[in-house]
């Protein structure tokens, strides 16, 4: 047996297939991140509304989709919805008939539910006095949101958003159970063909690691740019969870 | 863009008129039926113990707090629940807060430019010219490109004054503008406010700075438990207080 647990020749041979798998993972990350975020905004506004008729459904959405394990959600969408005859014959079957469509729906709903809370927390962190100062200047509510609350919320919430994105990337690995050949599924099939558990799985891990760290670097650069108004005192490198270093973006607010 | 209303200006009409204004927080009456008239160009100082309703009073004038009963008329515009009326009044009234409430993500210059750009549709160049002119007025043109976190408390408060001036309001409200400042910075802020007072703008200032009140105020008002207890010109107000409550208050703060 080799001193290394890795068969380098097999690893080299597997690279193209693993790379294709990574592209599927990237796609299954990017699209739900966009759709989930787009869904999160209106649901967050409803959740923060003073009107119970809006806030309650939004809260139920969050409780349900945050509480439902992603794997169960995916099974329900992929296998469960297919049992409904009306859906099979309807126009939405284009989405629900394909494993990709189902995966994107399930992942988007899951991401949206988490992002509602990230967004809400960030918006609530904006000091009330700053919003009042904007009101006193006669700025409309819409403009206050666009120019004051949202830019500040982004700074307060960037770290939480980064955590959510990173754990989301790794969460996409479960799509292999509905026949999608993402990075994890490719690694698994190589394992089944060669009975070498280490090489494909460790290679896949390296690919995930590279992807996640690319995201981390992106967030770091973004965070630095956002915190340029307090560059000296607010950017603090801390050892993050999940082995991530990162910037704490703390818009310095007086007093 | 919100059209600037041109209220009719008969000389006799007060800049601000409050009639039997009541504000309740639950069972507590923060304002217990306040009557007050402020002439155009008048400088009014309001003092009183904490919880006496003085902040609530000026915050009702620009509708940061909504009054529960009574009548408020600002520059001829009666304050109602109508959002348009509120916006109209806020275009006429500038406010400076105890805790500055600058936008931490914007430079001093951008802090001043935001409202004119959003409310009056000024171009970037126009807004910048306006903002620089007002920063010059508070002697901070050389700090224009700095972020609030880089400025001292006194400088931040002067930026906040310039920011309010950029909307070219006819009425300025100051809510304890020097209470959050270190003692050595009080003077520079009061100096700027005194310079403004000479410009003919209508001013209401909640403050305990008695020297300032003597120099600047045309009239002083003493509030306690949600009512106006005593008012008079500055000299008589401090030298010969009539009510026991004001005598007691002055004895407390002048100790």
TrEMBL record, chain A:
It comes from Ancylobacter vacuolatus. The chain crosses the membrane at residues 22-46, 58-78, 90-110, 165-186, 198-219. Keywords: Cell inner membrane, Cell membrane, Membrane, Transmembrane, Transmembrane helix, Transport. Gene3D superfamilies: MetI-like (1.10.3720.10). Belongs to the binding-protein-dependent transport system permease family. HisMQ subfamily. This is His/Glu/Gln/Arg/opine family amino acid ABC transporter permease subunit. Pfam families: BPD_transp_1. Its main location: membrane. It is a multi-pass membrane protein. Residues 18-220 form the ABC transmembrane type-1 domain. PANTHER family: ARGININE ABC TRANSPORTER PERMEASE PROTEIN ARTM, MEMBRANE COMPONENT OF AMINO ACID ABC TRANSPORTER. It is found in: Cell inner membrane; Cell membrane.
From TrEMBL, chain B:
Gene3D superfamilies: P-loop containing nucleotide triphosphate hydrolases. Keywords: ATP-binding, Nucleotide-binding, Transport. InterPro entries: AAA+_ATPase, ABC_ATPase_HisP-typ, ABC_transporter-like_ATP-bd, ABC_transporter-like_CS, MetN_ABC_transporter-like, P-loop_NTPase. The keyword Translocase does not apply. Residues 16-250 form the ABC transporter domain. Belongs to the ABC transporter superfamily. PANTHER family: AMINO ACID IMPORT ATP-BINDING PROTEIN, PHOSPHONATES IMPORT ATP-BINDING PROTEIN PHNC. This is ABC-type polar amino acid transport system ATPase subunit.
